[in-house]
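Predict structure. Chain length: 295.
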Amino acid sequence: MQARAALALTAVALTAPALAHPPRGIVVARDGTVYFSDLVRVRAIQPDGRVRVVRNARGAHIHALALSADGALWGEQSAYDPADGGYREAIWRRSRGGRTAYRYGPTKRLERGVGLLRDRKGCTWHLDQAFQGGPPLVHRKCRAKPAELLFGHAADDLRFRPGLVGDLSGTALDANGRLLFRHAGVLRRVAPDGSAEVLAEGLDRGNFGLALAPGGTVYLAEWENRRVAAVSGGKVRTAARSEVGWGPSGVAWRGGTLYVLEASLHRAGEPDRVRVRRIASNSDTVLATVTAAGR
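Prediction complete.
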């Protein structure tokens, strides 16, 4: 992707992701269906193992996915416009019956606080940074009310101009409506009243996915370390490792099982691929491997 967070690639670099910025979108529905993005297409792995495409963005990128309480699949979508170097942003919803419709955009005039994550009050959250490589900003927008700056400095917010509807990195909302996010190797939790706390430091600085388990453990995809880290009680441990040639970009948790979205490392002359692993206490299974749709 041409986005600000893109990672440089070379034909000989085997430590770079296959895609300019691998998708982190992976979620698991109550019936066991796994939805994941290959950056352009969203696929569903059905409980019987069949894999099918449920959305093809064609000319746009889909990085993150979410599931709402009613079982609907939500996604953000970003299309680069070379004419002005901007992005046409959108959020779409796919009902359980398979009908897909835009719920926000497509637009280049983004509002602060509009994002993919929605809390129980119907407010949306958005994580960004004040400028390229700058400090993080967290906004929350509740319906027609102006967005609130919950984390970050007002001075940074004044010069901030939203560019992407997708979060800067993987995010999650806990049962108390607090946002968890990673930025510059630090895992934080921010409450609706703006209070914030650090849950862990010294993590991979990449802007890849995270997932929250019911017990409070946070799972983070650490691309550079080729592992999924688990944070609980201020301690960090390795929950899973990716084999050589692959790196984790997204994670999901459902029913005591960890699901990992992995992207292949770039190799000249070989197709870019993504795959999904299901890791339980006594098994580690690759559910699907697909060729990525491209950059």
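Summary: The chain has one helix and 24 strands.
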